[in-house]
Write a structure and sequence with these properties.
Largest sheet: 2 strands, antiparallel
Shape: globular
Protein name: Nose resistant to fluoxetine protein 6-like
Helix content: 55-70%
Order of helices and strands: EEHEEHHHHHHHHHHHHHHHHHHHHHH
Number of strands: 4
Distance between the termini: 85 Å
InterPro entries: O2_lipid_transport_reg
Structural class: mainly alpha
Keywords: Membrane, Transmembrane, Transmembrane helix
Length: 560
């Protein structure tokens, strides 16, 4: 085979595979699959496109480099300039994937992304426009979910206690397990058993030896909601050459569940002693702001997920701040305040009456805060050499407050729309077109990352990354994810929620029931009484008519 030179590149390696590799069912796959079927295979070999790097020696052997097949090479063993800079950039850009999603820095899975990128040196240029900050700071959407979770939990708990006068702790925690666990368990079961049969191509072996291996060893981290607490200790657990878990993005459900467990300690005083309860919740809100502020200042950490070549800083920020519930509690507590305001206004409608100036001020403040959070660190959030460094004071201030500030801005949108001051925003967010997707959001969240993994491991040629190509890929992946989510929802989520409503629905509050009388049993007013009443109504000085007992219309309206 002759060396292939193109625009200064050299042949680095050639990846080979048989055209239709034989697939043997493992015991787990056999159990999960229905009996029957036959797997055919062919021994016709084939090679995929060569893997190019910007520099490196020519390797004419028809094999995948050791570092790609789950046997990472040490950094000093890599050819100069071969992979170091693209690796460091991608690790920092996709820190959610490389650090706490794939399991550890230096994992072979990140090598896949680097080998598949035909233009790694161009990637820094794609993130320079200020508009890219909307993607770089996309993890603020997670804080939106924390806000929504806190709001809904607060409304649910206060509504239950207002109706029954007590808090049912057993039902509260049981609902959480029933709501979240079945879809996670079903997804883990599928991924750990037969998902490997759906991945084909030159990297399919890596999928099984790295991702599938870690999934089968650590699925329990997902179903116990503690993966976020264990990610910093993966090396101590011996997970040095496998994925962290089946659903690494379930660190969010872990944090959310851990906060959910502690919510009654914050909300119950608010119900029994309102003044003291508000002070108690204010104390915890202040603590949720102070903890990340102190940690960022003490360890000199990033204030947020940054685009940087410093992968060690990315690791430290994720392990000490991003994944920890005590550092993600501030938007959740803002959600508790939002739920409390909505609950209080429901019982006191006068709180919902805002002047036009108050409404405009609220929207202006929310918009300004949101824009400041997203674009406020744009000049620092750039991986290019020469980018100015944020001072420690700026990092502490932004890192401690920006998540709560973002949650407060979104909370205004929730309150304004709920009280009728949303205008076109309310029309758009409450449009019926969102209702079908709203039933699938949880399963979309669970299946999105595994499907992206499977598609990436099934690629047979390098990618050339552009914004348009990424948009096209996103739309295609979303379509597949929605289809899979429909099936998962129908199989695991909807049946369990239906059973919960049937078996565990709390009894309705006691109501006075008026006996229904037949028309011939209803007493009627005499004509004399009716004429006298009519005369009195026409006279301003006449006595007011009392409602005639037994009037059919009044009885029916009362029953309604």
């Amino acid at each position: 085979m002759k060396p292939w030179h193109r625009r200064g590149t050299k042949l680095n390696a050639v990846e080979c595979q048989v055209e239709n590799p034989p697939s043997a069912f493992s015991a787990d796959e056999s159990i999960f699959l229905s009996p029957g079927g036959r797997v055919g295979h062919s021994d016709v070999p084939g090679c995929v496109e060569p893997v190019l790097s910007t520099a490196g020696t020519s390797d004419r052997s028809c094999q995948v480099p050791a570092g790609v097949l789950g046997q990472p090479q040490p950094a000093e063993a890599l050819p100069p300039g071969h992979i170091e800079e693209p690796w460091r950039y991608l690790l920092s850009t996709w820190n959610q994937v490389s650090v706490h999603m794939l399991g550890r820095v230096g994992s072979p899975s990140m090598l896949i992304l680097i080998y598949l990128a035909s233009n790694p040196t161009e990637l820094p240029e794609l993130v320079k426009p200020a508009a890219f900050q909307m993607i770089a700071n996309g993890d603020l959407s997670v804080d939106t979910f924390f806000l929504m979770s806190g709001t809904l939990v607060c409304l649910s708990v206060l509504k239950q206690m207002s109706q029954t006068g007590k808090f049912n702790a057993a039902l509260y925690y049981l609902h959480r397990i029933i709501r979240l666990l079945p879809p996670i368990a079903m997804t883990d079961a599928f991924l750990a058993t037969v998902s490997g049969l759906l991945v084909t191509g030159p990297l399919a072996g890596l999928y099984r030896s790295f991702y599938l291996k870690g999934c089968r060893h650590s699925w329990w981290m997902d179903v116990t909601f503690i993966s976020n607490l264990l990610f910093p200790y993966l090396a101590d657990m011996g997970k040095t050459n496998e994925a962290a878990t089946c659903l690494p993005h379930c660190w969010y459900t872990g944090v959310d569940t851990q906060l959910y467990i502690l919510v009654p300690l914050v909300l119950l005083p608010l119900y029994y002693r309102k003044k003291q309860g508000r002070l108690w919740m204010a104390f915890w809100t202040a603590a949720s702001l102070a903890v990340p502020t102190v940690l960022i200042g003490a360890y000199d950490l990033w204030p947020a997920s940054m685009l940087s070549l410093d992968t060690e800083a990315s690791i430290q920020y994720n392990y000490k701040v991003y994944l920890m519930p005590w550092c993600r509690a501030s938007p959740y507590l803002v959600g508790l305040w939002t739920g409390y305001i909505l609950h209080t206004a429901k019982n006191s409608p006068e709180y919902m009456k805002l002047t036009a100036s108050q409404v405009w001020a609220g929207w202006a403040a929310a918009t300004g805060v949101a824009l400041a959070v997203v674009f406020g660190i744009a000049r620092y959030n750039d991986p290019s050499p020469g980018t100015p460094q944020m001072s420690l004071a700026e990092a502490v201030l932004y890192g401690g407050l920006h998540r709560a500030a973002w949650a407060a801005a979104v909370a205004w949108v929730v309150v304004a729309c709920h009280w009728g001051y949303g205008g076109p925003v309310d029309w758009f967010l409450s449009h019926p077109c969102w209702q079908p997707l709203s039933r699938l959001t949880y399963c979309i969240y669970l299946t999105s990352l595994p499907i992206q993994f499977a598609l990436q491991y099934s690629l047979v040629r390098p990618h050339y990354y552009t914004n348009l190509a990424k948009i096209q890929e996103t739309c295609g992946v979303l379509f597949i994810v929605i289809l899979v989510s429909v099936a998962l929802t129908l199989v695991s989520e909807s049946p369990v929620l239906g059973l919960e409503k049937l078996l565990l629905r709390p009894p309705a509050p006691t109501r006075y029931e008026t006996p229904i009388l037949k028309p011939d049993e209803l007493p009627s007013a005499s004509s004399t009484d009716t004429e006298e009443c009519s005369a009195n109504v026409q006279s301003e000085d006449g006595p007011q008519c009392e409602q005639v007992p037994g009037n059919a219309d009044s009885e029916i309206s009362e029953l309604k």
